[in-house]
Amino acid sequence: MMENITCWLAKDPDPHTREELQHLIDAKALAELEERFSQRLEFGTAGLRGKVGCGPNRMNRLVIQETATGLGHYLIEQVNNAASRGVVIGYDGRNDSKQYAHDTASVLTALGIKVYLTHAVAATPIVAFGVKHFNAAAAVVVTASHNPPEYNGFKVYWENGAQIIPPHDAGIAEAIDNAATKAIPLMSLDVAQKQALLVWLKEDYYQTYRQAINENPLLNNHNQPEDVSIAYTAMHGVGAVMAETLLNDAGFSKVYSVKEQREPDGNFPTVNFPNPEEEGAMDKVIALAKQHNADIACANDPDADRFAVAVRTSDGDYQMLTGDQVGSLFGHYLLSKAESNQQLVGNTIVSSSLLSKIATAHGAQYYQTLTGFKWLTNVAMQKQSDEQPFLFAYEEALGYTVGNKVWDKDGLSALVAFAQLTAELKSHGQTIWDQLEALYRQHGMYLNAQRSIALDPKAAPIGDKLRQAPPTMIAGKPIEITEDLKSLTKRFANGDTESIDLPSSDVLIYHLAGGARVIVRPSGTEPKIKCYYEVIEAFAQSDSFEQVLEKASESMGMLISEHQHSLL
Description:
The protein is 39% helix and 21% strand. It is of the alpha/beta class.
């Protein structure tokens, strides 16, 4: 191991991580050194993401340069005219992101690949937009999204504008391993620019994204926007300028931004965890909303690809909507605006099945994918046609894409769409809560929850256990259908089987009598499982929203309790 460490120390271009590594060597911190050098940070379908620090199992300049080298070689092999078509590169506001983006550009241009590099920080959807805009071979965004401050990441988009999926993740990973054994090619950005290999994306490029969003026909519902007031936070990320601009373009003049969270700050000083889903993360924007009696309190995560919203309640307080609630509202709203039937909408296997019912009610086509936005957009591109155009997709983790201007989740266009939905309802004397209740009354109240369960590390894998002795009941309800995404088989209680048209994945889905659903997804790296639960409670005409919510919550509590007990 010490030979690898010495070699790394000699190659590392960053004095800060060299100093960190030398300190670990001097302190004989063998366990720490082993953890950092026993393996490389794994490159997968989300690219790279990890803590910043020295060594191949951390995010640092040398890891970035090796990753960019592997990516460059793979693109030249796999994509027609990759060098001349180029790669779009952008970065978020984290402390190391600009340096990592510039290192990536230095490597790719040294390989003869043209680079379009943002001149300043950019929201992830603004960079992803550039792939199709320039007909580029790929894009790279240096971002760790909503992870804690000590993290950074390297996200890759393919030539179709969507995040990479197999086999490209494995192909790039192999090319990175190969690149790590050789000298790293580097070209200064000044030289690259002189050789016409580097194009700086300046303000006119950002305005091109703005224009594309404003021209999206799905975002042109200008229904008394001046009557809606909006509190907004960028959560110390890069979304504020474009978010405020797009809202202003759409006629929303009452927009109040959380001042202390408006500018990019990689230290995220006012939030413990810069993720709108985390408790306390929305406190400042909700406080600002109360101050102005705003209709909605909205947030983007730090790279602005996710969107979160809390809505004013009848008592003047604010309540967060879940990703599934926002997705269902969007599904109904956008399908109501669609020019024709047969529009294509989709979500992931762990998201609410309410969207499928909404799609059916509108005569639209619904599709479902594995977890991850990369699947939602790649599958949408395969399924769409002139007769069946893509409209909308979402995942429960606050990711939404409206139309096909960006083939990834886009928290900026989602913000505009939700503001316009709010304005339309308000112009009719209605609220978001009224619309949500109307959907529940039509289709039933869909309640979703997720839990992680720690398991005995010495025990056999839970997936193996469940497959060897398949349960027939959960929480006293018979299992009517079991979907095993590992064997891609759907088994009915009567013994019939069907094949499943999805990539293989270690996931089990149980459909219970009465409509409830349980999904079990064993962790591949830790002794724990993730469980996703859905219950459906019917609405009688005389039932109040509160009554049905209470019933659904009781059913959910019982389902979670009894299912988790059965696994331990």
